[in-house]
């Protein structure tokens, strides 16, 4: 398939830029070619119109009729456990890792460098050992 | 009804109430001009009630160093008596008959020694700094205190990165977020700007020959510097050893590499 995620009623989207950057919303209705009516009751985004450009579609869809009121969007969101599933997803983990890396202090960077060095040494040692064994066998 | 309120007030007054700071009681008529005169403001602010001064504590008395009024100096040669007494504050040697013409006084032009010294809020005693200029550029160093000239007193410690007790300029330093708890440390009082100032040898014997060679080029380590360094570092090193990996951090130096942009780094 060329496209796997479609804009549909109930599609959960991640907002990539703008005032609500970083939060999840559900598409409740489509206004026109460029905008959707969007609501994020469990993520603190008020019900509003939002351009499709700033939304990135996720894998999650909640079962909600079009133009459903916020109460029902919240109910469907919690039933589908979207926030928990999102927190476990690789996408969310990568975002968090990127934020952590940006907030690292100079001392933290030094500690990371030392940890990486130690880890790579162990890995290389093991690889060399396995290579030697394979070479011996051959 | 008024009587009962008055009685309530009198009882409350006996306890000291922490008062909120009042806004200015002198409304502004135009910039620089207030509604009330100096004496009217004295009365409005009730300064007549605020005249007590707390008794000076013994510590404050000890801190006040009184300069001696006379000094005894030694006299060379025998039969001269070994010493003579010299007054520090002498009477004038000449009283002019007419007034000496004086220049008009300046306003607000202070000499460097009286300038206000600022210190970045991120630099506090115990902060790890990155030196950016000088022979120790790139080295990470511990900040001790700000001297009276505004320069920062800094130490390696010497055992970790060969940076001695030294002065650093605030502008040429990056303050990191890493701090060592220095509050228990005692820094010798002799470490001041005069202690660190470069000495100049200035005794040309009026010879045009080799003046430029004999001037002191190499810095000579003195015993006092070694002792002061030891005194400070012996207190600082155990504090550094308490924090894991801090010793290795101070031994390493700061560098930029590909993809590392200073404006995006959080120090």
From TrEMBL, chain A:
CDD domains, per the entry: eL14
Glycoprotein as UniProt keyword: no
Short name of any one Pfam family annotated for the protein: Ribosomal_L14e
UniProt-recorded Gene Ontology molecular function terms: RNA binding; structural constituent of ribosome
InterPro entries: Rib_uL2_dom2 (IPR014722), Ribosomal_eL14 (IPR039660), Ribosomal_eL14_dom (IPR002784), Translation_prot_SH3-like_sf (IPR008991)
Any GO CC annotation of this UniProt entry: cytosolic large ribosomal subunit
Keywords: Ribonucleoprotein, Ribosomal protein
S-adenosyl-L-methionine is among the record's keywords: no
Signal peptide residue numbers: none
Biological-process GO terms, alphabetical: ribosomal large subunit biogenesis; translation
Domain Large ribosomal subunit protein eL14 intervals: 46-120
Protein family (similarity comment): Belongs to the eukaryotic ribosomal protein eL14 family.
Name of the protein in question: Large ribosomal subunit protein eL14
Record lineage: Eukaryota, Metazoa, Chordata, Craniata, Vertebrata
TrEMBL record, chain B:
Quaternary state and interactors: Component of the large ribosomal subunit. May bind IPO9 with low affinity.
Ribonucleoprotein in keyword set: yes
GO terms, biological process: cytoplasmic translation; ribosomal large subunit assembly
Positions of the Large ribosomal subunit protein uL6 N-terminal domain: 16-74
Main location: cytoplasm
Recorded family membership: Belongs to the eukaryotic ribosomal protein eL6 family.
Domain of life according to the entry: Eukaryota
GO cellular component: cytosolic large ribosomal subunit; endoplasmic reticulum
Annotated compartments: Cytoplasm, Cytosol; Endoplasmic reticulum
Biological role: Component of the large ribosomal subunit. The ribosome is a large ribonucleoprotein complex responsible for the synthesis of proteins in the cell.
Gene Ontology MF terms in the entry: RNA binding; structural constituent of ribosome
InterPro entries documented for this protein: 60S_ribosomal_eL6, Rib_uL2_dom2, Ribosomal_eL6_KOW, Ribosomal_uL6_N, Translation_prot_SH3-like_sf
Protein name per Swiss-Prot or TrEMBL: Large ribosomal subunit protein eL6
UniProt keyword list: Cytoplasm, Endoplasmic reticulum, Isopeptide bond, Phosphoprotein, Ribonucleoprotein, Ribosomal protein, Ubl conjugation
